Automatic annotation (TrEMBL):
Belongs to the short-chain dehydrogenases/reductases (SDR) family. It holds the Pfam family adh_short. It comes from Fundulus heteroclitus. Keywords: Oxidoreductase. Signal peptide: none annotated. One of its GO terms (molecular function) is oxidoreductase activity. This is Si:dkey-174n20.1.
Length: 288
């Protein structure tokens, strides 16, 4: 049954006009897949040169001219607000929002003084989604897909120290757990309003995430990835599935891996924690 639905999905054209995404790895592959299905794709990137190159490649591979880029740096809340202002002025529709961008575990700080992982992976997307939510509601049915990672299970959130920035891998795990709570709470508050929300684990993907680390670590990870990881096209499949499948639409708030709903550890399904994180995030990004 799954194989048949998957084959049907590969052929399905979508009439959703607007969507946006990133300039490398899983994000680029998702953009290719959605553009090839007829979507107008806007990739939101912090580096103009890279974005322009990615747009050229996405256009060529998807055989679509309907691909654009806009400037967005998720490490700056000011940039997120500017991006949303411009987007809402120039685009009348938004049907699929993919919160793909992600920093792996690095001990750095954003422009606003948040730890890089928490600031980019969670707070940047939190503010972005909230500012675009009115447009998503206007364009319902619409979907928000947030990339997370199965490593969420190795950490819990500490509300006394949301800005935790001590062990790189654990900062990443916490930000990916925050993505899951965010996606669940978003599903709860938009229930009955035509907006659905999904958290997606793309698998262990051969993307460019190692570029943030030392040469030696990169060599080591190339070997590990060669043995255990999947190409970015495969990593993008679950995202595309959540973007276009009728079956996925029945599981708003769900966690998906390998193009199907997957089980979460009980602590990651705690609606109380999801609500608490939402409220704390509203305060941190100064959302009125
Ligand atoms: N790779 C894996 O095995 C794996 C596993 C589980 C989950 N994930 C998740 O999948 C998502 C995609 O990652 P990937 O594997 O495709 O890695 P990737 O190739 O490194 O892509 C990450 C993207 O995020 C963008 N980005 C980073 N910081 C940004 C910022 N401040 N503002 C705007 N864009 C920013 C990067 O842009 P630049 O090119 O400008 O840096 C890049 O386009 C991430 O959320 C990641 O956590 C990945």
């Amino acid at each position: 049954g799954y194989k048949e639905e998957y084959c049907a999905l590969l052929r399905r054209k979508i009439n959703m006009k607007y969507t946006f995404w990133g300039n490398s790895g899983t994000g680029k592959e998702t953009a290719v897949a959605l553009a090839a299905r007829g979507a107008r794709v806007i990739i939101a990137c912090r580096d103009h040169e890279k974005a322009a190159r990615a747009v050229r490649e996405i256009k060529l591979r998807s055989r679509s001219f309907n691909v654009f880029h806009m400037e967005l740096d998720l490490a700056s809340l000011h940039s997120v607000r500017e991006f949303c202002k411009k987007f809402l002025q120039q685009e009348k529709s938004l049907h699929i929002l993919v919160n793909n961008a992600g920093m792996p575990g690095v001990l750095d700080w954003t422009n606003d003084g948040f730890s890089m992982c928490f600031g980019v992976n969670h707070l940047g997307h939190f503010l972005l989604t909230n500012l675009l939510l009115p447009r998503l509601k206007e364009c319902a049915p619409s979907r928000v897909i947030t990339l997370t990672c199965s490593c969420y299970k190795y950490q819990k959130l500490d509300f006394q120290d949301l800005n935790y920035n001590l062990l790189p891998f654990f900062t990443y795990c916490r930000s990916k757990l925050a993505n899951i709570y965010f996606s669940q709470e978003l599903a709860r508050i938009t229930e009955g309003k035509g907006v659905t929300s999904y958290a997606v684990h793309p698998g262990f993907v051969q993307s460019r995430w190692t570029c943030h680390y030392s040469f030696l670590f990169r060599i080591l990870m190339q070997v590990v990835m060669w043995m255990f990881s999947v190409p970015c096209e495969i990593g993008a499949q679950t995202v595309v599935y959540c973007a276009v499948s009728n079956e996925a639409a029945k599981h708003s708030g769900g966690y998906f891996a390998d193009c199907q709903p997957a089980a979460l550890r009980p602590f990651a399904r705690d609606a109380g924690v999801a609500k608490k994180l939402w409220e704390a995030s509203e305060r941190l990004v100064k959302l009125a």
